[in-house]
């Protein structure tokens, strides 16, 4: 029954003949007298006169409202007035006239329910399934995806969960639009009960309820979309266990490395190589040092840098230089024996293959030494050089070993005759004429844990030589390296390992024979060396080892080149779980199937004039549905039960009814039609404060969630500390299910909490427009606000823009919570955790007063500590055992080792607190103005231009000599014999260190050192002047500390990555003699154009060097620091070699025993595979949890009161009930449902174009005249209603 019929009938019963005005015939309410409640004319630019095609064909659904007037005839006699009014109410709520439905194009349908969008999702699900299967296949074929050390490790761990999170987040739009539009879609399909249309609410119930209800109502699109959404949530949790770490045997695979050196085709460095190779060889064979990087027993090879996991081997094919001797057996000829004033000489020639080389054998010890038996055989050995027929172009290296007899005839006692012929023979000998050779070929260098473990020739046998490097240039450098004072101590001596036999050797043969002793374990008997084959093996092996030491320093230069190496060994790799992959793939396949099914179920065309996303949109859609609105009057403040009571037994559908009047244009009235049951006078909802909170926004639930957040932050910290303390939680093998459980279970807990904050944030977004209406809000912040059907980033942006802290905080909290799952996937992982065990370290010696004697196995006259120091500084060798930088430790051994760790592999760690000694220097610097300099200049070549530098009395010396240092500023006479020393820089730097002890009054001697350095002008000439000069003096003492030390391997090498840490509180002075047992002249000499002693040569060239030009800067602090450090390092090696004493027999074992801890770092030596908690992931999760807490608290504070609505505003009837008693409909023009929001907003503006505000609350309802009669008949005068009302601007 239309409103005009009701008006005409109502007036007819009162004998009123005038009809109601047609202009308001189809409006549900009469406009009030206020300016904002008068209906407005449609804006000129509106689409109320739409050109949409219409039809006059009547469309009547099978159960359309075509019933009669329920027995009440317009011509029925009028009875009792009260009965008449009741009949009219029944008629008002009863059947309408048959609607004049027309065909009209309805433009709106949900975007995410369009078939092309759903098809994209189906393709995405299938694509993800295929990608996961491919990923699993790749992981299976390659024993994993990446190693844990590769940069992409965390990307692989986080990406699967992140991708599924993104897909799930986008799919929620599909789910929401399906649930939200389902009642409207059902209305468009014909009359259906209110429970399945107007009262239907899928949005506010849980997903399991949605699925059950949707299947019951045959809303298969809703059920399918919700099932897919639940699948995706489950898959997000499951994906955290998709990847896990196992230890696998890595097959040979390519890996990039960078070479650091290359061979150079330039012999200049070779010609001035100095004696470093000699020192290095000496250290290798006498001090058991390791080969420096770039050198093996047979090759000098390119150094390279690789970053391989611990335990893995890297094999690189690089260039290597090898050398050898091509020898011919020579015949020795003796032409005479001569006796000199201080030496004896055998005039010998060596002939082989047409080459005749003259090389005399000279010695000061060929005569029988004192104490030798008369019949004792005297042996000799020499390694020298010569040329065939004295031709420089045809050179040879000469090796000879033999026996000799020397019988000088009696000479006058006053004779000064030199080179007198005497009797002598060489009864037996073995001699060789050799040519040096070298070649550069490819070698395979294998490193493990940064240490070279093998250097082997490559199968590629191609060899080459350097065009500008002759083999004899290498031989010259070989012989030249023995031109130093330390080498001279080996000349004309018998090696210690042959004594008491007499084997007179030169330095080369001394060290060659000792090299064979070190490598073979026993010395070769002298008689065996008379075999030319054995003799050739000895010298060839030595030369083959020695030349790489020369080449590594003189024939190579820094270079950086990227090449490919081969990695083998064990590695922690990230692998894909078969079970989890198949679980995800199956669910994605089901999701794809359900999505395809939805494609066939969603409407192909639109079914609404507009998107019903806001209150304004719903108002526009139901504005013409007068019977429905009248039915819902007074229910705005009621609960769902009241709505069900009002709409019980009714069926509804939507349609477009043609405008009345022949001249009317437009799309027609969009209405909700219904067949409504008759009911008596309705009951209005009563105003009450007992309104419930939305379930998820209840303060109790919120506080519980907040406490859970705080508990998780604390719990994560507790478990992290437990993991760090105990080395993880439990031992695991590579069983897949254990790894998966340790990731999925924590992720499940975190995701439950995340789902709460996501859902509560969604509820708050629904509630936001209504909370704004409670206190009154602007148009765009209330009835036209849609924060639900939008992406969270858009919602967050709009919330920030509108300063909506409640929604912004909740959305930010939901976003942060959604990341829980991603980082839960990396929270717990499996790692190789070191295992520890207690043991003991036994001290084998101690440091005491030095005996000042060198090791007899090295040489009888040299200070071998300086050899070690030179090698550490300049030879690129590691520190000798039980020393590190300037620290010397007593020798140690392990005891009480657990049975399962007694193998002591190379990578085991031993941690202990060990006593050690280190020198201490108390120093004072002096600038040029404080020094007295006396430079003596001479025109005579070879005088050296001595410079006397005198320090002031404050330098600490007792006498003038104690404070004086003499330096040569030019050439000395000995320098003139060595052309290599004549290349002096005109602006040469100079530096010298001297020992100047001081005797105190108590006769105690203080070790004191003076260093002087600076720069000259016109050096080496008679115009030499001093440009700059500085000095440093230091008093030296020895102190003992307790050091926290980490040793590596069973040989107890000190861990250079974690150097010893001293406990300064344990410092005591050590009773160690450091007087007069360190000579800088024993250090290696290096070529230099400057005037440096060996100490300063190392100072500017060692691995700890300062730039040479720093010596010319008087105020440079780096020079004193470098001087003191280098001196302490040298002193530590002197102490190491000269001051050790064995522990006395019967010493207290408690003093000699130190507690230690074994740390097994690999599975081979006892380490375990354990579940550990990742620190980075823990900190990220704690930050996310804290941010969720802060954002949520801010949101709650911004909107503390959420119990503002009597029911959820997510059904059509619920929103309509809030609008039914308001005055919004009186402001909407005709065709509002077809108009965009911009046009609708114009209805709510006054003449000043100010948009009115709106308010939600209880208000007294003004009754119509006909209702006032009811009051006269005894009924109540007014009802109070809960509704949305417009507010006049300015209110």
UniProtKB/TrEMBL annotation:
Source domain of life: Eukaryota
Originating organism: Cercophora newfieldiana
Region (Disordered): 1-80
Keywords per UniProt: Membrane, Transmembrane, Transmembrane helix
Transmembrane portions of the chain: 117-138, 153-171, 220-248, 583-602, 700-720, 740-759, 805-831
Protein's name in the database: Uncharacterized protein
Residue ranges, compositional bias (Low complexity): 46-66
InterPro entries, alphabetized: DUF3433
Pfam family, one: DUF3433
């Amino acid at each position: 029954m239309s409103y005009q019929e009701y008006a005409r009938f109502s007036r007819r019963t009162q004998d009123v003949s005038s009809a109601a005005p047609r202009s308001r015939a189809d409006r549900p309410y009469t406009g009030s007298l206020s300016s904002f409640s008068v209906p407005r004319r449609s804006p000129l630019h509106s689409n109320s006169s739409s050109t949409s095609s219409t039809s006059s064909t009547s469309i009547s659904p099978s159960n359309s409202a075509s019933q009669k007037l329920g027995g009440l005839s317009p011509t029925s006699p009028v009875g009792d007035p009260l009965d008449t009014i009741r009949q009219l109410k029944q008629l008002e709520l009863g059947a309408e006239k048959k609607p004049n439905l027309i065909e009209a194009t309805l433009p709106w349908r949900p975007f995410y329910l369009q078939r092309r969008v759903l098809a994209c999702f189906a393709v995405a699900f299938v694509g993800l399934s295929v990608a996961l299967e491919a990923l699993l296949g790749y992981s299976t074929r390659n024993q994993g995806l990446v190693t844990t050390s590769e940069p992409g490790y965390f990307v692989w761990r986080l990406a699967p969960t992140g991708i599924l999170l993104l897909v799930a987040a986008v799919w929620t739009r599909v789910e929401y639009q399906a649930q939200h539009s389902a009642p409207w879609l059902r209305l468009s399909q014909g009359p259906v009960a209110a429970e399945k249309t107007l009262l239907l609410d899928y949005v506010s119930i849980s997903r399991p309820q949605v699925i059950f209800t949707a299947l019951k109502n045959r809303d298969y699109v809703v059920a399918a979309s919700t099932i897919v959404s639940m699948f995706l949530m489950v898959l997000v949790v499951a994906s955290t266990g998709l990847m896990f770490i196992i230890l696998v045997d890595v097959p040979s695979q390519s890996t990039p490395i960078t070479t650091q050196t290359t061979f150079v085709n330039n012999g200049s460095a070779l010609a001035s190589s100095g004696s470093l190779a000699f020192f290095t060889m000496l250290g290798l064979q006498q001090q058991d040092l390791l080969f420096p990087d770039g050198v093996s027993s047979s090759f000098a090879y390119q150094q390279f840098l690789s970053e391989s996991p611990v335990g893995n081997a890297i094999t690189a094919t690089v260039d290597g230089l090898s050398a050898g001797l091509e020898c011919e057996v020579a015949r020795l000829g003796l032409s005479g024996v001569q006796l000199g004033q201080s030496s004896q000489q055998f005039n010998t020639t060596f002939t082989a293959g047409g080459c005749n080389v003259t090389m005399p054998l000279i010695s000061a010890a060929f005569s029988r030494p004192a104490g030798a038996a008369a019949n004792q055989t005297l042996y000799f050995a020499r390694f020298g050089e010569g040329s065939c027929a004295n031709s420089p172009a045809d050179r040879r290296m000469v090796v000879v070993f033999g026996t000799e007899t020397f019988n000088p005839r009696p000479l006058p006692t006053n004779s000064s005759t030199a080179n007198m012929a005497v009797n002598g023979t060489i009864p037996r000998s073995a001699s060789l004429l050799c040519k040096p050779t070298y070649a550069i070929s490819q070698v395979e260098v294998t490193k493990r844990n940064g240490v070279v473990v093998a250097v082997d020739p490559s199968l590629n046998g191609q060899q080459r030589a350097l065009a500008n490097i002759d083999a004899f240039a290498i031989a010259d450098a070989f012989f030249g390296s023995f031109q130093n004072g330390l080498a001279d101590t080996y000349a004309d001596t018998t090696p210690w390992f042959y004594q008491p036999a007499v084997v007179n050797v030169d330095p080369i043969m001394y060290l060659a024979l000792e090299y064979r002793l070190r490598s073979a374990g026993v010395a070769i008997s002298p008689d065996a060396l008379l075999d030319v084959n054995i003799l050739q093996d000895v010298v060839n092996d030595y030369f083959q080892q020695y030349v790489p030491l020369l080449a590594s320093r003189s024939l190579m230069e820094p270079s950086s080149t990227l090449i490919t190496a081969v990695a083998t060994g064990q590695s922690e790799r990230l692998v894909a779980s078969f079970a989890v992959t198949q679980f995800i793939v199956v669910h994605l396949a089901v999701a794809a199937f359900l999505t395809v099914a939805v494609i066939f179920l969603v409407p192909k065309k639109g079914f609404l004039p507009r998107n019903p996303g806001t209150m304004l949109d719903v108002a526009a859609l139901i504005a013409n549905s007068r019977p429905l609105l009248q039915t819902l009057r007074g229910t705005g403040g009621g609960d769902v039960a009241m709505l069900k009571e009002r709409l019980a037994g009714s069926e509804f559908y939507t349609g477009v009814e043609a405008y009345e009047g022949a001249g009317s244009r437009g799309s027609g009235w969009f209405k909700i039609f219904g067949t409504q049951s008759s009911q008596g006078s309705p009951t209005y909802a009563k105003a009450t404060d007992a309104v419930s909170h939305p379930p998820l926004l209840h303060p109790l639930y919120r506080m519980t969630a907040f406490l859970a957040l705080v508990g998780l932050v604390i719990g994560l910290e507790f478990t992290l500390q437990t993991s760090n303390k105990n080395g993880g939680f439990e031992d695991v093998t590579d069983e897949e299910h254990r790894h998966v459980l340790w990731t999925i279970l924590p992720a499940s807990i975190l995701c439950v909490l995340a789902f709460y904050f996501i859902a509560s944030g969604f509820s708050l977004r629904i509630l936001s427009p209504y909370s704004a209406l409670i206190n009154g809000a602007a148009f765009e912040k209330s009835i036209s606000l849609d924060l639900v059907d939008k992406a969270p980033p858009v919602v967050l942006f709009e919330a920030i823009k509108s300063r909506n802290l409640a929604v912004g905080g909740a959305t930010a909290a939901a976003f942060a919570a959604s990341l829980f799952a991603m980082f839960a996937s990396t929270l717990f992982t499996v790692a190789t955790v070191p295992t520890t065990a207690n043991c003991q370290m036994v001290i084998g010696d101690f440091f005491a007063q030095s005996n000042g004697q060198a090791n007899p196995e090295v040489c009888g006259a040299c200070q071998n500590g300086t050899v070690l120091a030179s090698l550490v500084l300049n030879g690129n060798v590691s520190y000798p055992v039980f020393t590190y930088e300037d620290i010397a430790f007593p020798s140690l051994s392990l005891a009480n080792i657990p049975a399962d760790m007694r193998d002591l592999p190379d990578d085991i760690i031993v941690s202990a607190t060990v006593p050690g000694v280190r020198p201490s220097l108390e120093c004072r610097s002096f600038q040029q103005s404080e020094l007295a300099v006396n430079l003596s200049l001479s025109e005579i070549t070879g005088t050296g231009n001595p410079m006397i530098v005198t320090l002031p009395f404050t330098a600490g010396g007792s006498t003038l000599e104690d404070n004086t240092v003499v330096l040569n500023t030019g050439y000395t006479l000995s320098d003139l014999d060595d052309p290599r020393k004549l290349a002096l820089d005109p602006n040469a730097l100079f530096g010298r260190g001297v020992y100047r002890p001081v005797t105190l009054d108590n006769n105690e001697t203080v070790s004191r050192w003076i260093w002087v350095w600076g720069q000259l002008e016109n050096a080496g000439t008679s115009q030499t002047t001093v440009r700059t000069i500085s000095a440093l003096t230091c008093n030296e003492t020895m102190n003992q500390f307790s050091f926290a030390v980490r040793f590596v391997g069973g040989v107890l090498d000190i861990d250079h990555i974690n150097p010893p840490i001293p406990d300064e509180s344990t410092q005591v002075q050590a009773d160690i003699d450091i007087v007069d047992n360190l000579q800088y002249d024993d250090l290696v000499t290096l070529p230099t154009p400057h005037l440096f002693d060996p100490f300063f040569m190392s100072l500017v060239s060692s691995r700890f060097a300062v730039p040479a030009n720093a010596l010319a800067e008087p105020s440079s602090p780096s020079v004193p620091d470098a001087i003191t450090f280098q001196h302490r390092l040298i002193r530590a090696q002197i102490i190491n070699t000269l001051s050790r004493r064995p522990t006395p027999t019967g010493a207290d074992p408690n003093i000699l025993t130190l507690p230690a801890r074994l740390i097994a770092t690999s599975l081979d030596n006892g380490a375990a595979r354990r579940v550990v908690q990742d620190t980075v992931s823990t900190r990220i999760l704690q930050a996310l949890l804290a941010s969720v807490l802060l954002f949520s608290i801010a949101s709650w504070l911004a909107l503390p009161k959420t119990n503002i609505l009597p029911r959820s505003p997510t059904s059509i009837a619920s929103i309509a009930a809030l609008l039914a008693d308001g005055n919004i409909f009186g402001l909407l023009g005709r065709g509002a449902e077809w108009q965009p929001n911009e046009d609708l907003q114009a209805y709510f503006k006054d003449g000043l174009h100010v948009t009115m505000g709106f308010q939600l609350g209880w208000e007294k309802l003004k009754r119509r005249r006909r209702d006032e009669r009811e009051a006269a008949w005894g009924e109540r005068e007014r009802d109070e209603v809960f509704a949305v009302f417009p507010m006049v601007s300015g209110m």
